[in-house]
Amino acid sequence: MSFSNLQLIDPLLKAIEEQQYHVPTEVQKQTIPAILEQRDVIVSAQTGTGKTAAFALPLLQLLFKNQDAPKGAKTIKALVVSPTRELALQIGNNFKAYARHTNLRTTVIFGGISDKPQIDVLTKGVDILVATPGRLIDLQKQDIVNLENVEILVIDEADLMLDMGFIDDVKTIEQSCPNNKQTLLFSATIPFKVEQLANTILKNPKRIEVANTSLAAKTINQVLYYVPKRNKMELCLHLLRNEIKGSILIFRRTKFGVDKLEKTLTKNGYNVETLHGDKSQTDRQTALKKFKNNMVNILIATDVAARGIDIDDLDAVINFDLPNISETYVHRIGRTGRAGNSGMAYSMCSADEKAYVKTIQQLIQKEIPVEENHPYPLDPQAKAIVHKSKQTGSKHKKGRKSKASKKKKRRWY
Ligand code: AMP
């Protein structure tokens, strides 16, 4: 199947050709016709599947065809809500690339920087607004953003919105748009609360699920190292010195972990950049730019900060900490081996993370090969002891911990 089979108009086909997309991806094949039929959709697809073009292309086509409507000042006709600044910028760039042979204008707004330039652009008028929820609601309260003419609303990465505590903001935004709009909801996974949200805001939606087959199709070589927690830094250094070369993305679960690893690697002569939720917008953009331009070859990030970011030509991903959610593992390793390039995913597993390996392997439906030949093997006895003490840990303690972690909900990434 080619893009022209999807009934896309020439200005879009031309832009697609310039992007050197030859055939539509699975999510594009399924989603583009449904959106062109003006149906609501709920799409379960992860980053890397081509999901941005899956909503951006038909959305542009619908707006392009509707342009005979009264001329005059541009009003916001499509709104894309995105959880993070980086993702919003990336979506905005995609829209600009796909719309370059149309007269449709896109702008991106997000918090963490002055709102003045954003207000200037909005005042001149745009057709498509890509926004993070906080800044959008701020500017709406100031009457700078008017959502009364929105024809299409896209909610991207709905499950991440939920994780980041934005779900009520999303509901408020949805209610500010007209009732008869078309709504497109995208989410990597569909947890219960996203399903509930979909049930309240979507009208007879087409459900589209794109299996994680992109993972199997990609050439990602995965390897697992069992290692005591205290030796992970040494193993990481050992791998960087002897094994892993090129552009490397290292994942840590918390921002504290990111900072700690940055210090150690810097002390050992590595040039690294970091991404986490506590960094200013400017610092995050600079870090990303340096990494993308090969000025540094190692980027250390938390899942939330790195989610959705499109980094091409990544040679390796290192899971310094194993994620407790299996889908996160899939997201992480999906950063490498893109577009037919082969990639490597290295995971370090300490005794207390063994259970995660089991659930990850269930999800990806294969065993991750274990590398036993390294200087810091996990003593099998220690493995058993840690495992046992975890199992006998008191429930009481668990309960207390979860309350505390609830309080700190937005502080660890
Ligand atoms: P996304 O899942 O939207 O983050 O897209 C992942 C990457 O795939 C981006 O770099 C897109 O530019 C690229 N892409 C999207 N659609 C296609 C396609 N049909 N063929 C090749 N690359 C694509």
Could you explain how this protein is built, in words?
The protein is an alpha/beta fold. The protein has two domains: 3-209, P-loop containing nucleotide triphosphate hydrolases (Rossmann fold), CATH 3.40.50.300; 220-380, P-loop containing nucleotide triphosphate hydrolases (Rossmann fold). 44% of the residues lie in helices and 15% in strands. The chain has helices at 10-18, 26-36, 51-65, 85-98, 116-124, 133-141, 158-163, 167-176, 192-201, 213-217, 232-242, 255-267, 281-292, 303-306, 326-333, 354-364, 380-392, 395-407; strands spanning 41-44, 78-81, 106-109, 128-131, 152-155, 182-187, 206-209, 220-226, 248-251, 272-275, 298-301, 316-319, 343-349. The strands form two sheets. Strands 3-4-2-5-6-1-7 form a seven-stranded parallel sheet, with helices on both faces. Strands 8-13-12-9-11-10 form a six-stranded parallel sheet, sandwiched between helices. Residues 213-217 and 383-413 have low confidence and may be disordered. It binds adenosine monophosphate (AMP). The site of adenosine monophosphate (AMP) has 12 residues, from α3.
